[in-house]
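Dear Dr. K.,

Following up on our conversation at the group meeting, I've run the structure prediction for Acetylornithine aminotransferase from Candidatus Taenaricola geysiri. I'm pasting the input sequence below exactly as I used it, so you can double-check it against your construct before we proceed with anything downstream. Let me know if the numbering doesn't match what you have in your notebook.
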Amino acid sequence: MDTKNIISKYEKFVAPTYTRLPIILTKGEGSRVWDSEGAEYLDFFPGWAVSGLGHCHPMVVSAIKKQAGSMLHVSNNYYNLLQGELAAKIVENSFDSKVFFANSGAEANEAAIKLARRYFQVVKKIDKYEIITMQNSFHGRTLTTITATAQPKYQQGFAPLPGGFKYVPFNDFKALEAAITDKTAAIMFELIQGEGGINVADKDYVLKVRKLCNEKDIILIIDEVQTGIGRTGTMFAFSQYGIIPDVMTLAKSLGGGMPIGATVIAKKYSDVLQPGTHASTFGGSPIVCAAALAVFEAIKKENLLLNVKKQGDYIKGLLLGLKDKYKLIKELRGPGLMLGVELNIEGKQIVRDCMAMGLLINCTHDTVLRIMPPLGVTAKEIDKAIKILDEVFKKTERA
Ligand SMILES: Cc1ncc(COP(=O)(O)O)c(C=O)c1O
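The predicted structure tokens came back this morning:
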């Protein structure tokens, strides 16, 4: 394959919104991918956490193939065979709710924000509209979701931003309490901040926030776009905190590689968005729902939640071993297979060096290596990845 020619087409014709590493991925299978020159990599950050089941999981591929033969897309003026089934599957695995389908995490969050405002303004007829989010959060790239994302770097140059958002430090209950006014409609956050550097919410904090929302009639929106679908060892992270959200947002690995977003709305609020108030052309199409249903089936059939716990403990033990060995590692964070290795140095070159040795990982917030292998990862694959990390850390400290 003509690698140079393919990359030059991007340079000429694709808007330059991404920093890309110079390989062209052409084939994937489980935890492994291959590039256009035939080189093999272990993918420990598959598709920005989209390919949670690994690449081209056979059950997902087969469901897509089967559905593609009968119906790809049905507009939401009609019913299709699978949207209701997928909603029921999400509800069965989460809490008493109804689901709105879209195509991305940003859209799922946008719907959650619209719902919170509409509930108070239209259903309760109260002037409540403020949304409180957390510093270092990430909720998407639309104008409203970069405003919800409390990181100036994502907002710069896009003023004026939509009004009615307030930011507080993560895990600081006093600051949150102090930010509440009679205009507060919702509190929205990730239980484990992914892009923000794998920052884990304290259990006590989350319980207090849930209680506060009940007392003050505030809608609790939990963004599980990255933590959802088994990543932390349970289907959704909220169950580990002993709370139930009012609204939960999903995307990424829900579709097994197909684009999907879902806003899961507790019964009390589930009829707020009525016909004409919200929609998405592609939302809940049968081809995407077929893939997402196969994701749930595969997680159950292959007992993947158990594997996340088992391999999560295993890789964490090995990473802690590396932490003892190398001064450049500051801290290890995260549950299950959602891991952040915070470094004392920038991580960009480490990501490149790992790639050169056949391991794909990510670096976020300049210094946090994000390691999120597929839910079905094996101990052998983990050993191989750790060996590469060990060599790269050794070389980096020597340099
Ligand atoms: C927690 C969280 N919410 C929302 C989003 C936005 O999702 P999307 O890129 O699908 O719009 C992301 C993406 O990284 C995310 O990690």
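Two things stood out to me. The mean pLDDT is 97. The chain is about 40% helix and 20% strand.

Best regards,
J.T.
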